[in-house]
Amino acid sequence: MQRIRELKLTFLFDNLEILFLVSGSFIISMLLTLIFIKEKIIPNRYSIDHTKGSQKIHDNNIKRIGGLSIVLSIFLMIKISEFFFEINNKDGLLSIYFYCSVIFLIGFVEDLIKDIKPRKRLLALFIITFLWLISFEQLIQNTNIDFVDNLIKLKTFAVILTMICIISTLNATNMMDGANGLLTIFVILVNVILLVYASHSKDLFLVNFLFIFIGSLLGFLVFNWPKGIIFLGDGGSYFLGAILSTLLIYMSNTLNNFNMLNALIIMIYPIWELIFTVFRRIYNSSNLTQPDNLHLHTILHANIKKINLPKKYIINNNALTGLIINIIALLPSIIFLFFKFDSNLKDNESISFFVIIFTIYSIFYLSLVKRNKN
């Protein structure tokens, strides 16, 4: 009987802790976001996202410093959780947060200045990522693909592969951030998937971190979907890309039921968006580093606008675009991972899944382009 009471108390305490982490980070993030919207802490001439630009699908001048509230709320909630629950977060997770915060600053400076050339930003991202990897050695250790695993036994190849994965994710999430709630909802859903794996492996530190992350994102989402009252900005999209890529690498190195194939399946849409964009720009002889309005979400938005939804609907064209893209981006991966949850992914079946989904995405994209021209 005493044992049952102890188990009940432990269960209650754990649930209260989770509720505290999620609600606390949510409230802090929401309040900070509201402050950044209402108050001119950063003058409007720096914080406003002017509507000029081919990739823009919004109609008003909106602040693009929302990523700052997510970064700050995660930090504050980590410190609060350490004080109230004596949660000592793993050094690996803290080093990840430190790296991602530095990456955020690169994008945040661009959000304020709006005149840093893409190549200079890319060079800065490479340098900081390289220095962090060398210092903390958060390298990919296993991919479950034999020939790749043989290569990364050499540290040089491990560093190169890890840098490519992280920088690619940063650019992919930056490209993806183009409709109300699109990237934020995507990252929230990915975090829920990661929570399933972390909980199954009983990694409590990781579980707590993911709950704090989700709460911070939800607090920002209140003002970003369905109406885009504030944007993540380049700083926010870089930060989310950095968190996603480094967390996925961390989990593939530490969890028994998760490897880089799982990570690639989860990130299949951003990967497709990046690869398809590169080949599209090469084919069209376009500048690889310059933004355009030919991403899937902008083409889909153009098609949705033709439907001319009544203005009385709460979900506008922009918000609906973000919702549909997220269904497209994650539903196939969730179904695939659900059926393969209790077994290690094999490279042949994962590659087959990639080829099928890449083909479907490409056909869908081309059909929308053709429909948009009619």
Strand order of the largest sheet: 1-2
**Oligomeric state, counting identical vs distinct chains:** single chain
Percent range of helical residues: over 70%
Distance between the termini: 72 Å
> Sheet with the most strands?
2 strands, antiparallel
| Mean of pLDDT | 86
Structural domain tally:
1
Radius of gyration: 21 Å
- Judging from the principal axes of the Cα atoms, what is the shape? globular
Structural class: mainly alpha
Unreliably modeled segments: 1-13
> How many runs of DSSP E, i.e. beta strands?
2
Compressed to H and E, one letter per element, the order equals: HHEEHHHHHHHHHHHHH
Number of helices: 15
Strand content: under 5%
Give the helix/strand layout.
Layout: H1 2-38, H2 44-47, E1 48-49, E2 62-63, H3 67-85, H4 91-113, H5 118-136, H6 146-151, H7 155-176, H8 182-200, H9 204-221, H10 233-254, H11 260-266, H12 268-283, H13 296-307, H14 317-339, H15 347-373
Antiparallel strand pairs: 1-2
If you had to describe this structure to a student in words, what would you say it looks like?
With 374 residues, the protein is mostly helical. It has one domain (28-373). 73% of the residues lie in helices and 1% in strands. A two-stranded antiparallel ribbon has the order 1-2. The relative contact order is 0.13.
Quick structural overview:
This protein is mainly alpha-helical. The protein has helices at 2-38, 44-47, 67-85, 91-113, 118-136, 146-151, 155-176, 182-200, 204-221, 233-254, 260-266, 268-283, 296-307, 317-339, 347-373, and strands at 48-49, 62-63. It is built from 15 helices and 2 strands.
